[in-house]
């Protein structure tokens, strides 16, 4: 038989012995767990100020020319179907081939670092397509681009390689108001 003095009181809180007995402690632990999970998948506070990435599609096509809405803010838009990257940096908009010039691997946008990167050999590029470092031997290939009303028109057959025509490569962008 048990001693009645050692039996727990009927109205005692079963969680009173728990380390996280309050709502505030529970919420803090949940926030900590969420931060750990975000860190595990590669999110950092710097990503909050990252140049955003959007998937896009051409609004219209005429032969080799693709028309896109003019990007309204800094960021990167990728049209996977036509293998076109649009990048707006300040008042300049560039159009690039999606493939890395080293071995034609699809480039990725690293928003937190404000750069493009080739996942295969780790070549990196600035938002204007200029080469930073890695195995590639030149900057990203740009397409001829022009402004037509509220849209930019990209000619996917008029590719400009920095190493073959540096002057034309440097001019392959549009300025926006």
Any descriptors?
177 residues, mainly beta, Rieske Iron-sulfur Protein, 2 domains, five-stranded mixed beta sheet, four-stranded antiparallel beta sheet, 13% helix
Which whole number gives the mean pLDDT? 81
| Sheet having the most strands | 5 strands, mixed
In CATH, the topology of the largest domain is named Rieske Iron-sulfur Protein
Strand tally:
13
Helicity range of the residues? 10-25%
Query: How many discrete domains?
Result: 2
Rg over alpha carbons: 26 Å
Could you state the CATH homologous superfamily of the largest domain?
A: Rieske [2Fe-2S] iron-sulphur domain
Order of helices and strands: HEEEEEEEEEEEEHE
Structural class: mainly beta
Report the principal-axis shape. globular
The second-level CATH architecture of the largest domain is 3-layer Sandwich
Contiguous low-pLDDT stretches (5 residues minimum) are 13-18, 37-48
Strand residue percentage: 25-35%
Q: What is the helix tally?
A: 2
């Amino acid at each position: 038989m048990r001693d009645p003095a050692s039996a727990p009181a009927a109205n005692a809180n079963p969680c009173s012995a728990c380390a996280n007995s309050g709502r505030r402690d529970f919420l803090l632990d949940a926030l900590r767990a969420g931060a750990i999970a975000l860190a595990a998948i590669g999110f950092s506070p710097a990503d909050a100020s990252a140049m955003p990435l959007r998937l896009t599609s051409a609004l219209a096509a005429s032969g080799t020319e693709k028309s896109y809405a003019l990007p309204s803010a800094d960021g990167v838009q990728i049209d996977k179907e036509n293998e076109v990257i649009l990048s707006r940096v300040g008042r300049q908009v560039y159009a690039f081939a999606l493939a890395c010039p080293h071995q034609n691997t699809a480039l990725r946008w690293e928003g937190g670092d404000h750069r493009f990167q080739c996942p295969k050999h780790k070549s990196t590029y600035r938002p204007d397509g200029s080469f930073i470092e890695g195995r590639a031997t030149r900057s990203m290939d740009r397409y001829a681009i022009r402004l037509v009303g509220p849209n930019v028109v990209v000619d996917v057959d008029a590719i400009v390689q920095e190493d073959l025509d540096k002057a034309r490569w440097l001019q392959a962008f549009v300025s926006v108001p």
